[in-house]
Hints:
Layout: H1 29-39, H2 41-44, H3 49-64, H4 75-89, H5 93-120, H6 131-135, H7 141-172
Amino acid sequence: MSRSSVDPGIVNSPPLRRDSRGRIDVDSVPDVIEWFLNYDQRVAIIKHPAVQEVFQWKQQHSQAQGEKVFIFNLAEDRLAIGIIQALADNSTERELHDWISQLLNALETASKVNETAAEEYKLDLQNGGSILKQAEKIPFQKGRVEFLLNCWIESLCTAEARVLGWLYREFYGQPFAP
């Protein structure tokens, strides 16, 4: 996903409801997230079984590392909560802009690391099979962990940046631009 594609230019997406003063009703954000999960393939990837498998691995890995983790049943639930939390924590245009920029930087880094690993270890990531199975081809534990963490970051940041980029445009009347 290139940085310029954060402004989705989506047609027929759900309008954000507005209150009687014309302000955006943030209670309509979950409907927007659901729409993206159902109709936008770059966001819906979060529901793919291979991504779900990596997400479940990530939660187990984090717990094993002693991190306090709120356990989600589905990756899409984690995505939705993350988007809503990002909006709550980044309530100004500048803050939301900075957050989306951070997502894009993390996405770029994760994508590059994964491309390198896929080439070096001849990983087949195109056929929709188990990413965990492909990670077994990496001969050392630290490399497998890094690869799987970056797979999750890549999926999550792609979906979150896509939705937040669209919301940014709706909130501030202009597309997100890095």
